[in-house]
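Hello everyone,

My group is preparing for a crystallization screen and wants a predicted model to guide construct design. The compound we'll soak is zinc ion. Before spending weeks at the bench, it would help to have a computed complex in hand. I've included the protein sequence and the ligand's SMILES below. Output in structure-token form would be ideal because that's what our pipeline reads.
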Amino acid sequence: MRDPITVTILGSGAAVPTPKRNTSAQVLSVNQVPYLIDCGEGTQTQMMRFGVKQSRITAIFISHHHGDHILGLYGMLSSYNLSNRTKPLHIYAPSEVHRFFVLQKDFFGEVFNYDIVFHPISFKGVKEIYEDKRIRVTSLPLKHKVGCCGFLFEEKEKEPNINKDAIETYELSISDIKRIKDGEDHILEDGRVIPNAKLVTQAQVPRKYVYCTDTAPVIDKYDVVKGVDLLYHEATFDCKQNLLAKKTGHSTSVQASEIAKSVDAKRLLIGHFSSRYKEVSPLVAEAKELFPNVEAVKDGGVYTIE
Ligand SMILES: [Zn+2]
Ligand SMILES: [Zn+2]
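Reply:
Good plan to model first. Here are the tokens for the complex, ready for your pipeline.
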């Protein structure tokens, strides 16, 4: 069994917070390492409520510079400072987010005791923007009122495992093992060839998560998202609000389901709901007609990729 990858929703509402739904933020956790995605107002308190280990975050990904995605950022960075953080923090965000940070830093005259490194993301084409030993992250330009990016989080491919009995049976050396892991067959002294498939067990297929908000339905043009295990797609409106969705650079739940179907997603989560909806079950019902494996997220919900 692999360690599950989890997504903890910290905010599932659009534009303004309500008692039930905070604005956008979520934490992707891979091998217990948390990555923060967007940082709406109140994100740090939501992390406390839902048991996210804030101090372990070293990378933050921000989709765009609308308030409902960034108003919690400065407060959180400031709290890190007050709690004597020393670990550097990397923020992958449109350049406007850096500008907003500098304005606030100058206003408060705050001196940060740890490094905050901004990495500007571009809206021109699909780009790999981050990599560590566990994952790689690719930005996906979206279609919104301002420059905005979605993110593809991909687990890194693991090497195949050499079967233990093969090591003993063929007395494999370290260099043999390396060659076999690279995909070669093994040739015995008498010339017999042992096929690679008999010597290794392939590692499991890497898992993929896509975060996609705020946007009109566009990500089906990106091949890299095909077959994604879990897709979070915004569904700000119900299908009666098609025109409003188009005008504001958002999607309806039906459009989210069309995207999920067209990219062959295994599962769809919808969120970023307009505060006009007290109940979002009608939005789910509309999406389900085309894409049955869909669920509306809620604040505090934890969604798993096994
Ligand atoms: Zn938004
Ligand atoms: Zn927005």
